[in-house]
Amino acid sequence: MKIVLMGYMGSGKSYYAQLLAKELGFKYLDLDIEIEKKAGKSISAIFSSRGEIFFRKLENQLLDELLKTQDNFVLALGGGTPCYGNNLELIVNTPNLKSIYLKRDLSYLLYILWEEKNKRPMIAHLNKIEDLEDFIRKHLFERQYYYRQAHFSLNPTKDANETLNAIRQLLH
Q: Where along this sequence does the record place binding of substrate (predicted)?
C-alpha cells in the first residue's frame, strides 16, 4: 500500500508521514528530500539556479518513479505537487494508493509559515505578514480543486496521537 499526504506547505505532511510510516512499518518518503538527493542541491538552490519549471519537471519525474515501485510507503508531497502537470492523475490512477488531504485553516498556516518563511523559497521574499496572508489565500483558493480530489480529507488537531488515530480510521 502507498499512502500519500497532500496539503498546503506547513500543513504537517512531513511530520505526519514520518509518524505514520513508523507506526505502520512502512518506508517514509518526502518528495522534496528525494528531489534534493536527485539534484544534489537544496530546493532553494534549484529554484535559484534552474527555476520553478525545472523543479516541477524533476518533481513529476520522481513522483512517477516512486509511484511505480512495489514498496509500501508513506509519501509527503510538496504543497504544489498535485497542482502541476499530470501529478494528480498519477496519484489518482496508482493502484493500492490512498491519498489524504491535510486541511489546515488560514490562521494556522499563517502562524507556521511566518515563522518558517526564510526556509521556504516560495515565500522567503515576503516581508510583511499581510503579504504572506494574501499569498496563502490565493494559493489555497487555486489549489483547493486539486487537494479535494484526495481520497480523504482531514483537519489535523493539536494532538498528534488524535490525528494519527483519525488517519488510521480513514485507511481502514
A: 32, 56, 79, 143
